[in-house]
Design a protein that fits this description.
Elements (H helix, E strand, L loop, with lengths): L21 H23 L10 H9 L7 E8 L2 H8 L1 H17 L6 E4 L4 E7 L3 H16 L3 E3 L2 E3 L3 E7 L6 H17 L5 E3 L1
Parallel strand pairs: 6-7
Antiparallel strand pairs: 1-3, 1-6, 2-3, 4-5
Helix pairs in contact: 3-4
Length: 199
């Protein structure tokens, strides 16, 4: 059996680094603080599970819109999510939420915003969209998610969503519009889910 051999190589003296000036040290500290502030600001606008926007980000986007412009909201609720979460575990439930979020984002325009609103719910902000436009987007989302197929240790399964739709009236604030979209979503649930309902 051969012994493992090695030798220590002593490094030669390294050239001393030039001393930083006070201005350079201050600039480096400011740059580090700016980077950390940017990271924290981004984190406050991001949903912890999906990595997408959260409701604070959606509310800020709503506030930036022009008062007279048409705006619509969709409330997307996953049919039977609790059963999936209970049967397959939270890890699988989180993966499902992320997949649904990605599918919704894929169907939207660059200036639309989708944010996770609750455990298994997403709010979608549609700037410059009248009610007919919002219903068409909602139907496109519903079909895209219905076509998805998921695999798990218990086998393959499909998911459907119910979607409530509401449009802003005049200078209306975000919460009343969200409330109407939520009411429409509850009506869709009472009617069996897997549908788009507008108020």
């Amino acid at each position: 059996m051969s012994a493992l051999s090695f030798r220590i190589v002593q490094a030669g003296p390294t050239a001393p680094r030039p001393a930083q000036t006070i201005e350079e040290r201050l600039r480096a500290q400011i740059d580090n603080q700016d980077a950390e502030l940017s990271r924290l600001r981004h984190a406050t606008l991001q949903d912890a599970i999906t990595g997408g926007a959260n409701m604070r980000c959606l509310a800020m986007s709503y506030d930036w819109l022009e008062e007279g412009d048409p705006v619509s909201m969709l409330m997307v609720d996953i049919d039977g999510f609790r059963k999936v979460n209970d049967a397959l575990g939270r890890h699988c439930g989180d993966a499902l939420l992320t997949a649904i979020h990605t599918a919704i984002e894929r169907e939207l325009r660059w200036d639309d915003v989708v944010a996770r609103e609750g455990a298994d719910r997403f709010a979608v902000l549609l700037p410059l969209a009248i009610e007919e436009d919002a219903q068409a987007v909602g139907e496109r989302l519903r079909l895209a998610i219905e076509r998805m197929c998921f695999s798990s240790e218990l086998g393959r399964f499909k998911i459907t969503v119910r979607i409530g739709c509401a449009s802003r009236s005049g200078k209306e604030e975000l919460n009343p519009v969200l409330g109407r979209a939520d009411a429409a979503c509850r009506t869709a649930r009472r009617q069996g889910g897997n549908m788009v309902f507008a108020v």
